[in-house]
Amino acid sequence: MEKCPVCQNKQDLASMEMTPELVEEMAASEVYEDFCGKTELLRRLELCNFCSRLLNGMTCAECGCFVQFRARHSTAHCALNKW
Fold this sequence. Notes:
Elements: H1 5-15, H2 20-29, H3 38-49, E1 54-55, E2 59-60, H4 67-70
Antiparallel strand pairs: 1-2
């Protein structure tokens, strides 16, 4: 039986030694149909960087996302309504 691609992706990510730099590099290489734009991305990431709920400079403790990925989507929003 083949593994579900989503489950496999989660397993692969969990086994990697994630760093803020690696997450940023991975997020920057993704193609987004709903990219929010560079100015908005930088604004959002600055808000995240000063948030007390940011863990290890990359993960939101409220929703569990990698902020570098979530912040890039124009349709996404902060779990704490900061952006």
